[in-house]
Amino acid sequence: MTPLSSSEIDAYNAQGGAQAESTDPKAAQDRFLKLFVAQLSNQDPMNPMDNAQMTTQMAQINTVTGIQQVNETLKGLAAQASALQSMQGASLVGRQVITQGNSLSVNDGTATGSFNLNEAADSVRVDVLGRAGELLGSVNLGARSAGMHNFDWALGNVDPAQVASLQVTATSAGQSVAAIPLSRQRVESVGMVDGTLRMRTESGLTVSYDQVLAFL
C-alpha cells in the first residue's frame, strides 16, 4: 500500500474528513490504513509513536467500522419490518375496529356499536341518537359484566344517514355505573404514513394502529 504524503494528509484534514462521510466500512478501513501508514512514515524518529498509541488507533477504526455495519443492519431490519407491517395491514381491510368515540357502523339495515363498563351492571340500555341529538331507538341489554361489549340495533324504517351516535345508561342496585361509548367502524383502506400504519374507516376517519382498542 502506497503511503500518503504529508501534503495529502493536510489536505484531508483541511476538508474536515469529508471522505469519511462514506458509509462503506471497507472504504473507511482503507482510508484509515493509508493515513496510519502515512503517519508511521512521517513520524519523528526521535519520538516515535508508542505501542499504546498504535493500539488505541487500531481500536478506534474497528469501533467506527462496527458501528457503521450495525447501522446498515438496523436500516435493513427497519425496511423489512415496514414491508411486513404493510402486508399485515392489507388483511385488516373489511374488518371492524373499535376506537375511542361514540359512532356506530351501519350495514344491511343494522347499526352496530360498542361500549365499555367500568364495573358490572344489572341494567344496561343503549340509546341510538340522530344527527340532531334526537332519540331514534333503544336497546335494552339487561345485566352485563365489566369490560367491553358490542350490540346490534335494527334500523327498521329509520334512514341510515340519520344514525349518528350512541348513549349508554347503566346501573347497579339503583346506582349509576360509568359506561364509555366506543366508536366501531369498518376499515376501508390502509397505508403507511411516516412509518406508521394508518387505517381509513367507512366514515372517513383516519386511525393509527396504536389507537385501536380491538379488532372484530
Report what the structure shows.
With 216 residues, the protein is of the alpha+beta class. The chain has two domains: 6-90, no CATH class; 102-186, Immunoglobulin-like. Helix content is 31%, strand content 38%. It contains three helices and twelve strands, in the order H-H-H-E-E-E-E-E-E-E-E-E-E-E-E. The protein has helices spanning 6-14, 25-41, 51-90, and strands spanning 96-100, 105-107, 110-117, 121-130, 135-144, 147-154, 163-172, 175-176, 179-193, 196-201, 206-208, 214-215. Strands 1, 2, 3, 6, 9, 10, 11 and 12 form an eight-stranded antiparallel β-sheet that branches. A four-stranded antiparallel β-sheet has the order 5-4-7-8, with no helix packed on it. Strand 7 and strand 8 form a beta hairpin. Helix 2 (25-41) packs antiparallel against helix 3. The longest helix has 40 residues, at 51-90. It starts with 5 loop residues before the first helix and ends with a strand. Residues 17-21 have low confidence and may be disordered.
Can you lay out the helices and strands and say which pair or pack?
Layout: H1 6-14, H2 25-41, H3 51-90, E1 96-100, E2 105-107, E3 110-117, E4 121-130, E5 135-144, E6 147-154, E7 163-172, E8 175-176, E9 179-193, E10 196-201, E11 206-208, E12 214-215
Antiparallel strand pairs: 1-9, 1-12, 2-3, 3-6, 3-9, 4-5, 4-7, 7-8, 9-10, 10-11
Helix pairs in contact: 2-3
